[in-house]
Amino acid sequence: MYRLGILVFFLLLAGCSSGTQSENPKWVDRMIHQFESEPVGNPPQSIWRYEYQGQIVYYVPPQCCDQFSSLYDAGGDVICAPDGGLTGSGDGRCKDFISQRTAETLIWEDPGTR
Description:
Shape: globular
Number of helices: 3
C-alpha cells in the first residue's frame, strides 16, 4: 500500500506543470501578441469568448466609430461583423448575435499601459 501511495504521489506531481499554457487557440494567442505590439487603442482592445448557435466564438469589439467588430469561429475564420460600421448594426450576417450569445468570458483586455 505504501508503494502505491508513493506511485500516486509522483504521478500527481508529474501532472503538475510549472509553466503557463494558454487555454486559447493558437490564433487567439497570436492576435493577443499582435495587439500587445500595437499602440493602446481607445477604447483598449479586448477579446471575448461566447457560445453562439451551438459553437464557441470569439468576439473582437470595434476600436472606433464606424469600424466593424469581428466574430471568429473556433478555427479563426471570420463569421461576420455583429456590430459597428456606419449604421452600427454590423454587416447583417449575424443580426441575432448580440441577443443570442451566451457564456460570456473575457479572454484578454489591453491594460491600457505600455
